[in-house]
Write a structure and sequence with these properties.
Number of helices: 8
Order of helices and strands: HHEEHHEHEEHHH
Protein name: GAF domain-containing protein
CATH class of the largest domain: Alpha Beta
Structural class: alpha+beta
Mean pLDDT: 81
Low-confidence stretches: 235-240
Largest sheet: 5 strands, antiparallel
Keywords: Kinase, Transcription, Transcription regulation, Transferase
InterPro entries: ANTAR, CheY-like_superfamily, GAF, GAF-like_dom_sf, GAF_ANTAR, WH-like_DNA-bd_sf
Shape: elongated
Helix content: 40-55%
Strand order of the largest sheet: 2-1-5-4-3
Pfam families: ANTAR, GAF_2
CATH superfamily of the largest domain: GAF domain
Radius of gyration: 25 Å
Number of strands: 5
GO molecular function: kinase activity; RNA binding
């Protein structure tokens, strides 16, 4: 594949990854394109790093690559795991003779894989996952494979980072709106100012050892339920909420 063809493929992936395409669909598209484009890549997947440090495969070209990823995640070793942890590309030209991963390599060979490449995916300097490529033959990945894989890795990093930021922003806005609604309910119910109402919610959160957003969601749900009752003025809509002055 020449430069023009590769550019066309990457542009198409980028174009179809925008708009209303879900993150899962976009990553599946990228994985499929990488499998068809990266020289020597027979199986491709993308893993993301969870907050607890655990890796999870969220897009894969086939079931075999999911099994290979799962073995690495279970053992805590392998090119892809090490690439994410060390934040450096890792390549094995022959897992049959590679001694760097003594537990993973034999199992990968038993599953029919001989070559592997793992690339770290990052956003704003933080590792967010890995692009994992497997070859059925030894020495499947050469310099050209690496160059193309790095380009796909850059696209995957950008896509994951952008979607994660969008998700975080949406969640943050939703949380802010929910707490604002709950504060308004407390203000109206107990005739408090905004600051005192928020302090009340914060105190309930601390006393109950629960997150503020959980308290807010519960109060908003209670208020919504109360409005749907036959007697909307019934004070039972307050549930267990009681205001106590300092």
């Amino acid at each position: 594949m020449d430069v023009a063809e590769l550019s066309t493929v990457l542009e198409e992936v980028a174009r179809r990854s925008h708009g209303e395409t879900s993150l899962e669909e976009a990553l599946d598209l990228l994985v499929t394109a990488a499998q068809q484009t990266v020289p020597g890549a027979d199986h491709v997947s993308i893993s993301i790093s969870r907050r607890n440090g655990r890796l999870e495969t969220i897009a894969a070209s086939d079931d075999l690559v999911r099994r290979l990823d799962a073995v690495q995640h279970e053992l805590g070793e392998g090119p892809c795991v090490e690439a994410v942890r060390q934040r450096q590309r890792r390549t094995s030209h022959d897992l049959h003779t590679d001694e760097r991963w003594p537990r993973f390599a034999p199992r990968a060979v038993d599953l029919g894989v001989r070559s592997q490449m793992g690339l770290d995916l990052y956003d704003d300097g933080e590792s967010i996952g890995g692009l994992n490529l497997y070859g059925d033959q030894p020495s499947a990945f050469d310099e050209a494979s690496t160059h193309v894989a790095v380009l796909f890795g850059s696209h995957a990093s950008h896509l994951l980072g952008r979607r994660m930021r969008e998700s975080q922003l949406t969640a943050a806005l939703g949380t802010r709106q929910l707490i604002g609604q709950a504060t308004g309910i407390v203000m109206e119910r107990y005739q408090l100012g905004a600051e005192r109402a928020f302090e009340f919610l914060a105190r309930v959160s601390q006393q109950g050892n629960r997150k503020l957003v959980e308290i807010a969601a519960e109060l908003v749900d209670q208020a919504a339920s109360a409005r749907t009752r036959d007697h909307p003025d019934d004070d039972t809509g307050r549930g267990g909420w009681r205001h106590q002055d300092d």
